[in-house]
Design brief:
This protein has ten helices and four strands. A four-stranded antiparallel β-sheet has the order 1-2-3-4. The chain has helices at about 70-105, 115-130, 135-145, 150-185, 190-220, 230-245, 250-260, 265-290, 310-335, 345, and strands at about 1-10, 15-30, 40-45, 60-65. β1 (about 1-10) and β2 form a beta hairpin. It has two domains: about 1-65, no CATH class; about 70-295 and about 305-345, no CATH class.
């Protein structure tokens, strides 16, 4: 169809109006009888004038998303559910960290057996969302204003603020745990830091190589996000999320180097945090099996595909990996850091000082 635009020579002089009607407007509407209630309107607006004409303008592509009331209710229900899950995860994280702090207060001799690298990874896991997601939060609110959420819109924002407060509390507690581990290990001499440096030297190449492999594979396949959303920065954020899912890996390596035996970590701490990290993947599997509307999936409040690897295959793989890591830590704390090695490698070789008889 033909469109016209109003060319006003002056805003205050409405009589001197002229119209440019050499504009082609094309829109493609979806069928009105489709069952899923999703309506995606695509179109374009372009000028029919020559490029040398002063009234010529470049082609404008238009995309419009519309949805029914039922679809909007489903999306609002999904966002409410994700906020509740996020709040539960943050609250459980605070509880598990407090439990570890009390455990170390009763057993301070176990602090040198805790991986500082693991504590740094967990601390950054709480800090980075607080620092980097403010822009995303404001962008989310701008998009949210275009959606008729009704009375639940204000409640949604209040719940989001509560979630961020809980996340900040978890970050403060985790930072205290990092500070306690760091200070106690400084007073333990160079022996512990030698093991930490060895763990870092082993873990860092694995993280780098694993990240490069993940980027190459997922950039080629693109099975966890749509191609329009794919970016190097998004892939890096997803790999950081994968590193957080395997937060116990540095502790496992440190236990091997230290040949440690003893409960350095509270069972609730490593098992509970593993559960918190795997819960989004379990929810993603549930979300993939339901018929929840996908029109508002850009407003992810929980299990965001831009912050971790989410797909049926990744969800199962990460869940199995997290359970395996937790099981290894449990066995290491019970049978020793090298319980899987042959017996001659399970104990540290030490020399015993023997008294020497003098000739005097």
């Amino acid at each position: 169809m033909v469109g016209c635009r109003n060319l006003n020579s002056s805003r205050n002089e409405s009589r001197n109006e002229s119209f440019d009607c050499e504009i082609l407007v094309q829109f493609q509407f979806p069928p009105t009888n489709q069952k899923n209630g999703s309506f995606l309107i695509r179109g374009s607006i372009q000028s029919l004038r020559e490029k040398t004409d002063v009234l010529y303008f470049d082609r404008l592509n238009v995309v419009s998303l519309t949805f029914t009331k039922t679809e909007a209710r489903e999306s609002i229900w999904r966002m409410d559910l994700e906020i509740i899950l996020d709040l539960i995860s943050g609250t459980l994280s605070c509880f598990f960290i407090i439990r570890q702090l009390f455990y170390l207060k009763k057993n301070p001799e176990m602090i040198p057996s805790i991986s500082v690298l693991m504590m740094v990874i967990l601390t950054l896991g709480y800090m980075v969302p607080l620092v980097l997601n403010f822009e995303a939060m404001f962008s989310y609110r701008r998009h949210l204003q275009t959606i008729p959420l009704g009375d639940s819109g204000g409640l949604l924002e209040v719940n989001e603020v509560i979630v961020r407060i809980v996340t900040m509390v978890a970050f403060i507690l985790q930072f205290r745990l990092l500070q306690l581990t760091w200070s106690k290990n400084n007073g333990n001499g160079k022996s512990h830091w030698n093991h930490e440096i060895r763990s870092l030297i082993l873990c860092l190449p694995i993280y780098i190589i694993g990240g490069l492999i993940m980027l190459l594979v997922d950039w080629k396949n693109g099975d966890y996000i749509t191609p329009s959303q794919r970016s190097i920065w998004g892939d890096l954020r997803s790999f950081v999320g994968l590193t957080l899912d395997g937060f116990l890996f540095p502790q496992i390596i440190l236990n091997i180097f230290q040949i440690s035996k003893g409960n350095a970590l509270s069972g609730l701490f490593y098992a509970g945090n593993t559960f918190v990290r795997l819960l989004p993947h379990a929810y993603d599997l549930y979300r993939g099996q339901t018929n929840i509307s996908r029109q508002l999936d850009r407003f992810y409040l929980y299990a965001n595909p831009r912050t971790d690897f989410y797909s049926p295959s990744w969800d199962v793989f990460i869940a199995c990996g997290g359970v395996v890591f937790a099981g290894i830590v449990f066995l290491q704390q019970r049978f020793g850091g090298r319980f899987v090695f042959p017996k001659r490698f399970q104990e540290r070789a030490e020399y015993e000082k023997v008294p020497v008889a003098s000739n005097e």
